[in-house]
Amino acid sequence: MKIAIAGTGYVGLSLAVVLAQHHEVYALDIDAAKVEQINARRSPIHDPEISDYLATRELDLRATTDPEEAYAGAQWVVVATPTDYDTVTNFFDTRSVEAVVADVRRINPDAAIVIKSTIPVGYTEGLREQHPGATILFSPEFLREGRALHDNLHPSRIIVGDTTARGQEFADLLLEGSLHDDVPVLLTGSTEAEAIKLFANTYLAMRVAYFNELDTYAVTRQLDTRQIIEGVGLDPRIGSHYNNPSFGYGGYCLPKDTRQLLANYGTVPQTLITAVVDANTTRMDFIAADILDRHPHRVGIYRLIMKAGSDNFRASSVQGVMSRLQARGVEIVIYEPSFEGETFQGCRVLRDLPAFTDTADIIIANRLDEHSDEFGDKLYTRDLYGRD
């Protein structure tokens, strides 16, 4: 069976690898350099499992920049293009999804289209109305950046927003590519599937915000955050997972998904979703103020990435703290070995760790790693457990 994947980010490339274990897969991307890397069996993104599978496994996978080559003859087309949140419209920018659907309908109108990109609640239903007769499904992804293939090989659940045999067929494709045969599978309405995605990520953001605000209280009252978290987590209804304080939730998914869900509420009564969105701003305000109370002359930012094991800078919480410090006139220097430029948002970028350490008065790190001990008393972090 031929399957096309539009987009080779974490979602698209991990799915392409999973499906190419058993089927002929064409991965489409507008970036010729990424296409060349994939065809050379090198991963263009940081994901250890993707790198390993591309290098060592027999995969029927070809990347291309040509929509005709990708879509012609495909039975399934999976849309995994980015849908960034537009702060002007307060909705996801879904133009890339619509462009893919239009191309597929022109090139191969018989193909079934599965949207994996995150979209507003109710979007698929409207898209079906625009394309009468088209088979268009939505299937949410629940992947971590840097562990996307791992999460596709070991899925917590498979959800497809279609209760017909078509929905089951796509679910079976995902199940076939996983390493388990007992994965929970849920077929729902398309709008319910869209809501599941946004509510799941907003719950995760709420949990991050909760433990961050617990930490803010403890720091302000000179209490031991770790003791409080461990005592709270002993309640089996709460548990001791996903409880490590940070500078705030960040990355590609949680900030935009919480805002999209808030926008989808519209006139529906709520207070909690607004609080989850606002809590992240409050946390970064507190972290910046706590650093400023130390009267630094030059602050070092250790890594711009949104979490450990990622190469993504997008919407990382450390950048929110950095911008607040800059606004107060604090000089910033950054250590980020994966960034090729000399400056980032007007700040010097160093790739020599000893020089970076010597330059800064305070070094702030959202997450600890093997270099953290080298910073000594200069280190400022709220990471208690060395995990996300």
TrEMBL record:
Span of domain UDP-glucose/GDP-mannose dehydrogenase C-terminal: 300-387
SMART domains in alphabetical order: UDPG_MGDP_dh_C
What is the reaction catalyzed?
Answer: UDP-alpha-D-glucose + 2 NAD(+) + H2O = UDP-alpha-D-glucuronate + 2 NADH + 3 H(+)
Give the binding site residues for NAD(+).
Answer: 29, 34, 83, 118, 145, 256, 314
Which class of enzymes does this protein belong to? oxidoreductase
UniProt cross-references to InterPro entries, sorted A to Z: 6-PGluconate_DH-like_C_sf, 6PGD_dom2, NAD(P)-bd_dom_sf, UDP-Glc/GDP-Man, UDP-Glc/GDP-Man_DH_C, UDP-Glc/GDP-Man_DH_C_sf, UDP-Glc/GDP-Man_DH_dimer, UDP-Glc/GDP-Man_DH_N
Query: What protein name applies here?
Result: UDP-glucose 6-dehydrogenase
The protein's organism comes out as Serinicoccus hydrothermalis
